[in-house]
Specification:
single chain; TIM Barrel; eight-stranded parallel β-barrel; 12 helices; 8 strands; binds 3-methyl-2-oxobutanoic acid
Length: 273
């Protein structure tokens, strides 16, 4: 049985719940590996723009491209909850369009959608919930705000900004989001916003006290060309393993060692005479 948004909504650590584990995936094999590891939530993140499509930011991915990746992830039939990022400009223009775009992600296989921003998003959150689509929020260093922020900079570093973020989180909670990602803030802000909310927070660069943690698949497996952010713990160096395995293949092809007879189909007698 798939984990529902409603089940995730009750996962507060202070009520004794285990921390929520969320990892991104963008294709069927990735989703299969992530699900087999027993995560609670698979995020089909718009980070696909960075780690799969090679862009410098997340602004260059469309609803159609996100749907393509959501379909691939859904094909793994994961037990984990699948949340899909609403890409930049898919919920900024018009409420009806926002609902249609979220609906497209759900039809592609998402169980809920995630969008960035606080009180300015209250109407769109309401419209999506009216359409029966569960919504996850995302505050702090919201990557879709890179132009407005003037770069990927830690947010909520002043008392006023921290209070603003906590207020934003409360507004999203009151509108009905089931969880909020808190990204790139001082750990005390991660702690305070988690304390202030009845719904769970899922941190990425928000310290140890949030109700869950999320990392990007390629970051945690060592498959990126960029230096990892401070908050990334890299659990494997798959990038080096992949290059080494493919170099071995190239060496064997060039030396004539691959394929050998055991790796070729048998020849019927009639073809040999
Ligand atoms: O797109 C993404 O991977 C995200 C995470 C950084 C939370 O939104």
């Amino acid at each position: 049985m798939t984990t529902s948004a409603l089940q995730i909504r009750s996962r507060k650590r202070r009520s004794g719940a285990a921390p929520i584990v969320m990892v991104t995936a963008y294709d069927e094999p990735g989703a299969r590996y992530v699900d087999a590891a027993g995560v609670d939530i698979i995020l089909v993140g718009d980070s696909v723009a960075n780690v799969v499509m090679g862009h410098d930011d997340t602004l260059h991915v469309t609803v159609e491209e996100m749907c393509h990746h959501v379909r691939a992830v859904a094909a793994a039939k994961p037990r984990a909850h699948v949340v899909a990022d609403m890409p930049w400009m898919s919920y900024h223009v018009d409420l009806a369009d926002s609902v249609r775009n979220a609906g497209a992600l759900v039809r592609a296989g998402a169980h809920s959608v995630k969008l960035e921003g606080g009180r300015v998003r209250r109407e769109v959150v309401r419209a999506l919930l009216d359409a029966e689509i569960p919504v996850m929020g995302h505050l702090g260093l919201t990557p879709q705000s890179v132009l407005a922020f003037g770069g990927f900079k830690v947010q909520a570093k002043t008392r006023e900004a921290a209070e603003w973020l906590i207020k934003d989180a409360t507004v999203l909670q009151d509108e009905g989001v089931y969880a909020i990602v808190i990204e790139g803030v001082p750990s005390v802000v991660g702690t305070r916003v988690t304390e202030a909310l009845e719904i769970p927070t899922i941190g990425i660069g928000a310290g140890p006290d949030t109700d869950g943690q999320v990392l990007v698949f390629h970051d945690l497996l060592g498959m990126t060309s960029r230096a990892p952010a401070k908050f990334v713990r890299q659990y494997a160096d798959l990038g080096s393993l992949i290059t080494s395995a493919i170099s071995d293949f190239a060496r064997d092809v060039r030396s004539g060692d691959f394929p050998n007879l055991a790796e070729a189909y048998d020849n019927p007698d009639e073809l040999l005479n």
